[in-house]
Amino acid sequence: MSAATAPAASLPDAPAFSPLYQQIKALLLKGLEGGEWLPGQVIPSEVELAARFRVSQGTVRKAVDELATENVLVRRQGKGTFVATHAESATQFRFLRLLPDDGSPPALQRRLLDCRRMRAPAEVARLLALAPGEVAVQVRRLLLAPQGLELLPVVLDDLWLPGTLFKGLTMERLQAWRGPMYRLFEAEFAVHMIRAEEKLRAVAAQADDAVLLAVPPGTPLLSVERLAYTYGDRPVELRRGLYHTAAHHYRNELS
Amino acid sequence: MSAATAPAASLPDAPAFSPLYQQIKALLLKGLEGGEWLPGQVIPSEVELAARFRVSQGTVRKAVDELATENVLVRRQGKGTFVATHAESATQFRFLRLLPDDGSPPALQRRLLDCRRMRAPAEVARLLALAPGEVAVQVRRLLLAPQGLELLPVVLDDLWLPGTLFKGLTMERLQAWRGPMYRLFEAEFAVHMIRAEEKLRAVAAQADDAVLLAVPPGTPLLSVERLAYTYGDRPVELRRGLYHTAAHHYRNELS
DNA sequence: ACGCATTTGTTCGTATGTATT
DNA sequence: TAATACATACGAACAAATGCG
After folding, report:
1. For residue A190, which of A50, A217, B3, B109 sits 20 to 30 Å off, Cα-Cα?
2. Please, are residues A135 and A117 in contact by the beta-carbon 8 Å criterion?
3. How many helices (H) and strands (E) does chain B have?
4. pLDDT tens, A91-111?
5. Is the pLDDT of residue B13 over 60?
6. Nucleotide nearest to A48 (CA to C1')
7. For residues A159 and A226, what is the distance between their CA atoms, to the nearest angstrom?
């Protein structure tokens, strides 16, 4: 966006200029990345930040505004500005787009299938920007929806996480945890997901997946491949979900 | 969000208070809805608007800012603020999320299959907020992607439009049109899509759809049901797309 | 090629309103 | 009630991009 009128030669693509509020925004992000303020905590008030960075309150405000619209920060009038967290029920379903067709609120239960450490397969390593052969944690789980008196499997999730970041993530630890998984990652491993990219396609259920999802082999399933990022655009989770969309759908808003 | 501290009784949920800039925003939207400024045109400068509405430039600015982040307006430094349009190549693919797996830019060709006027089926009428039995226009088309030297069908689209708004929309008219369909709607029927909701699921190809998409019956397809809205949250298009996701995927960004 | 007017973009400052504790 | 925080609103000045004479 910036270097449209850049000199025709030499300089690769120098930023060369950045508005003050963008610089402040970058500084705030650095603070968040460095753990100066943790998810759920208040950051200093606008006047304090203005004093610290030697800019006007309005400039701080503009930086915070952008971080708030990106869901990195949350403003609360009269209380302060907080680091976003996956703890609150409001933000609970920020990354879950699967809804029941009947319009009822999502109410999925977890069933943990597996959790193991291993060398990351080449493709996984590439997407997570790991060195070849580096260790990764793989997690498998089912999400089940109440259907009358029963629980029917709806989602089969496969997760890959960098082993260095998730030391000590075990089956027991996951099993014991109540609450959103991303909240566990925040609280126990200091990894906070702020953004994700998803690729969706329709696929046919393989034999083994079909068993777990309790559908006939060949049943059309929605495949959702997610790459989730922390601060600094670092990919830290690869997730492959298979959604059975008989009584649920993936909702998206375009604008 | 507003009436959290409202008096416990009588009033249902009165807005009771709206910031100035929100009122200005509403006035701008009314102007857009009324056709005072058409897609692609400039709106008055910030100072002019400030004078007209008797508020400060900063207040106008905040209203315009919000409309710009909603993609209703587009700001261009040094030139002015413009009404968003589906004409420009930049916004061309705003509502198209299907991308080739190989990362190449989307390059889909159209093939019109059908265009007819008829009474809207009950379900279509309900979603488009039409009176029962009201006339609707149905359009069918294929989107094809170049694959080597051939063209392979990738998307089968089924559209429903309110008949009263789209008088004179014929097969010939569609056939003759070069450019985005939403641009045709803007230019010829004064209907501008600003927002859409999509519901995605995986389905098996029916016999007739399979023929058109050149896939075996039962092939998993991505079903995308879109409801598109104009100003004032009026639904004006129902679209059901079937995507063959063998070499393409639906991309989504979460934040 | 240059400068000028216009328009949005950035930055500052100040005052007041509203929500929370 | 008072203090603190974010929210709204105004005003002013300069920078950067654009288009025109």
Report:
1. A50
2. yes
3. 8, 11
4. 678 899 999 999 999 999 999
5. no
6. D5
7. 9
Size of interface A-B (CB pairs under 8 A): 103
* pLDDT for position B89: 67
Neighbouring C-alpha atoms within 13 Å toward the C-beta of A90:
6
Q: What is the pTM of this model?
A: 0.92
Using the structure, give the distance in angstroms from the CA atom of A37 to the C1' atom of C16, rounded to a whole number.
31
Output B151-155 pairs: Cβ under 8 A, ≥24 positions apart. B151/B109, B152/B214, B153/B111, B153/B212, B153/B213, B153/B214, B153/B244, B154/B98, B154/B108, B154/B213, B154/B243, B154/B244, B154/B247, B154/B248, B155/B98, B155/B108, B155/B241, B155/B242, B155/B243, B155/B244
Nearest-angstrom CA–CA distance, A174 and A230: 21
Instruction: Report the chain B residue with the minimal C-alpha distance to residue A197.
Output: B253
Q: Which of residues 57-76 of B touch A (CB under 8 A)?
A: 69-71
Taking the C1' atom of every nucleotide in all shown strands and the CA of B17, the nearest one is C18
Which domains are present in chain A?
20-83 (1.10.10.10), 98-250 (3.40.1410.10)
One-letter identity of residue B43: I
Q: How far apart are CA A156 and CA B174, in angstroms?
A: 43
Rg (CA), chain A: 21
The one-letter code for the residue type at A247 is A
What is the pLDDT at residue A16?
A: 55
Confidence of residue A1 (pLDDT cuts 50, 70, 90): very low
